[in-house]
Design goal:
Strand 4 and strand 5 form a beta hairpin. A 3-stranded antiparallel β-sheet has the order 3-4-5, with no helix packed on it. A two-stranded antiparallel ribbon has the order 1-2. It has 2 domains: 60 residues, no CATH class; 39 residues, no CATH class. The chain is built from 2 helices and 7 strands, in the order αβββββαββ. By secondary structure, it is of the alpha+beta class.
Length: 115
């Protein structure tokens, strides 16, 4: 099944595809050329129904530009990574969410259940 999906995706040019930026969705989205004179900034993901910025391929950010959004996101990501290091959090190897060990053994069950 995954092989068929990968084969279908491989025939779509890279410039015309991207994936939903939400970790719990990640559906393949197609970005075709808009009609002449038309600028598409946002679109709904047909799978999770959330709004995606078509220009920077990130979650929708209505009040700020793509550049400003990316700058704020990078700053926020750096703060989270620093905090996680200080707290000795680890990332789940499947979903990449941070996990804090409070007690018990080192075995971990992913709460997101990614495949």
């Amino acid at each position: 099944m995954w092989w068929e999906k990968a084969l279908c995706e491989s025939v779509i040019p890279e410039k015309d595809k991207f994936y939903c930026p939400f970790n719990d969705c990640s559906a393949l989205l197609l970005c075709s050329e808009p009609h002449k004179g038309m600028i598409v900034r946002a679109s709904n993901c047909p799978h999770c129904k959330r709004i995606v910025c078509v220009q920077c391929r990130a979650p929708w950010h209505a009040e700020i530009s793509c550049d400003k959004f990316q700058m704020l996101k990078n700053t926020c990501d750096d703060l989270i990574i620093d905090h996680a290091k200080r707290r000795k959090w680890r990332r789940c190897p499947n979903c990449k969410h941070y996990v804090e060990k409070k007690q018990g053994c080192d075995a971990m069950t992913c709460c997101v259940k990614t495949t």
